[in-house]
Amino acid sequence: MDNEYGYGAAAGTIFAVYAVILIFSLVLAVGIYVLMAIALSSFFKKVGVESWIAWVPIYNNWKWLEVGGQQGWLALIALIPYGGIVTSIFLYIGMYRTGRAFGKDGAFLVLGIFLPFVWAFILGGKNSGEYHPEWFAAYGWPPPLAGYGAVPMAARQAAAYQPPQAPPTV
């Protein structure tokens, strides 16, 4: 039944269209999440990180950053409005470093920026080549913080500690 303005049928149609768009968006978001988790799972397995981590939101980005030699806590910045941009930049740096450790060139990063699940599927696949975390040092980068080639936290802290120097004697 129309209300006093005659918009009853139009309002129902608008609501139905809105509901269809909302359901489609949710199904699409879940599909992308599952696709990305499967891709990261294969990638994590190849670089020495437990594959179940790919299914945990935020923590998967934390480990992904650490595989690229970045600090994992940078993933938490994404929880702040517009912080995802900062997290993405550090993730792209890590993706570049990880790609280089697989022997890929810098142009491979473009694929990672626009289609990260394809990037992860390629690197996690059997034909992607061997992962060489020791190449991080060859390029002058810090080692990965997770996976193969990672330096344990205690060793990193011990290496960072410099005992105080005695003042020179005259």
Describe the structure.
There is one protein chain. With 170 residues, the chain is mostly helical. It has one domain. The chain is 56% helix and 0% strand. It contains seven helices and no strands. The chain has helices at residues 8-47, 59-67, 83-101, 108-114, 116-124, 135-138, 153-160. Helix 2 (59-67) packs across helix 3 (83-101), helix 3 packs antiparallel against helix 4 (108-114) and helix 4 crosses helix 5 (116-124). The longest helix has 40 residues, at 8-47. It is elongated, with a radius of gyration of 23 Å.
Annotation keywords:
170 residues, mainly alpha, 7 helices, elongated
Category by helix and strand content: mainly alpha
Counting DSSP H or I runs of 4 or more residues, the number of helices is 7
Shape label: elongated
Number of strands: 0
Topology:
Layout: H1 8-47, H2 59-67, H3 83-101, H4 108-114, H5 116-124, H6 135-138, H7 153-160
Helix pairs in contact: 1-5, 2-3, 3-4, 4-5
